[in-house]
Fold this sequence. Notes:
CATH architecture of chain B: Orthogonal Bundle
Largest sheet of chain A: 2 strands, antiparallel
Structural class of chain A: mainly alpha
CATH topology of chain B: Helix Hairpins
CATH class of chain B: Mainly Alpha
Strand content of chain B: under 5%
Helix content of chain B: over 70%
Oligomer: heterodimer
Strand content of chain A: under 5%
Strand order of the largest sheet of chain A: 1-2
Number of domains of chain B: 1
Distance between the termini of chain B: 43 Å
Radius of gyration of chain A: 21 Å
Number of strands of chain B: 0
Number of helices of chain B: 3
Amino acid sequence: MTDLLPLAVAVPLLAALLVTALPRQAALLGVLGAAATTLAAGAVLTAVWLNGALTADLGGWGVPLGISMRANGFAAALLAMTALVALATSVYATGYFADSPKAVHFWPLWLLLWASLNALLLAADLFNLFVTLELLGLCAAALGALTGSADAVKANLRYLLVGLLGSTTYLMGVALLYSAYGALDIALLAEHIAAGGDENNAVDAAALTLMTVGLALKAALFPLHFWLPPAHANAPAPVSAALSALVVKGAVYIIVILWLELFASVATASAAMVLGLLGAAGVVWGSWRALRAARLKLMAAYSTVAQIGYLFMFLPLIAATPPGPARDNLFAALVLMALSHGFAKAGFFLAAGLVQQQAGHDRIDDLGGTAQQMPATTFTIGLCGSALIGLPPSGSFIGKWLMMQGAIEAGQWWWIVVLLIGTLLAAAYTFRVLSRAFGLEPTPLRFVTDARSEIPALMLALTAVGVLGLAAGPLWTLLGLGAGGAA
Amino acid sequence: MILFALGIWSFLSHEALLRKLIAFNVMGGGVFHVFIAVAYRGDTAPPDPVPHALVLTGIVVAVSATALALALGGRAQDAADHD
């Protein structure tokens, strides 16, 4: 069973090699590789579901010398979300990049990106997290610059440099921790830190600060989000979908692990409050800029800044809630919000890409008639928008509901105000797009105009709204089974 | 530690890409030096091999990142010349 974990990384890596070796069959091989990777991720999810957390020691070398991998409920849930989003994006990309010479470069980088993301989610020690984070950043910047336009290259160069700054800062934190404890494995370190008492408090605090600041840069936490909107808005649509839905989540995943698992014993409530306040500022600022954005993809990119803010608002609430069912609920709600944002934002970007291809631009004010020309795509945008707002029955409705409950129980009512403002603004920017999309042209006969690209986006939207909302229950079981120290 | 701080300072204060990249490498150099210092376990005991392995990996990552940044920078320059 433990061979499953390396498989989730090895399959996309192998597919990336194949695609590079046989560029003529790139699209076919790419989709096959994507399907195989999804199967591997599904197998990991099933195994975690049935047996609880998994670990694997590569080459038979255990901790502390060898490299080991692990999967708990949190990682498995994100792994599965990644697989579904990436599979849909792959299918979409065959249509989007059809007859485009860029496909040759897209597929290897795309599969490498997927491999490094899977490796990141399954990594069991801090240094591997650094390596996979770097790989992810390199692939993402290269993919983002794929259009080759001056704006895209410039934005992604900035993204790359910011990423390097962030990950080097993170590495400095890792070095400090290693000097204090002589270990890198997350579980081992967490024990050391909990046992360390007051003596190493300064080192812990310095390392946590360095690592969090470095990662917050990569996760686009307000006010370190400045690089995200241009980089995401200028990338090709399948790439923006992956960047917004998946790559940013990688950094958030590490921050959540750091705060809730590794430094659970030293992270103070007031420090978590700072992160939460920054998150809240991100919610308001991101949503406001999204409302004011002139272009559809820019709007989606700013909305990512806002949605990432919600995830950070959970940290002070979780820190203020004593362990028990209430805390588990908050953690599950955090995961649920991350998952539904992943699906909804990916679907949104894919649909926005179709609109852009069809209309030749994505200026929101000039989109009249889109609803008549591309009914399925407009429907997708509407569905994704409702998931971003948090209308029932979407996954984020449950997430926000639990967050409000947690905020009331913890006596921190101000989060609710932010939540309401963010939700209202999200509703405003979604309806702004929809109100422009309808024109006076006659209603078409066909709902779906281009099945290969429209269906994957629609599927993602339906997952975000329907599946995650109506069937969120199993998530609790999954996290309860595997999350261990985190939940 | 000083190298790291110097690197961050010049990374943030310089506009030119080449300077930023050199600053990033100075920063990385600072982190690697800390790792090497961590490996010291007294005059008689052999140094800890793990940080050395980490530094090697880190250098590889830094080199490839620098290469990609330079390539992107060249592309941005080309695009700017065309306009």
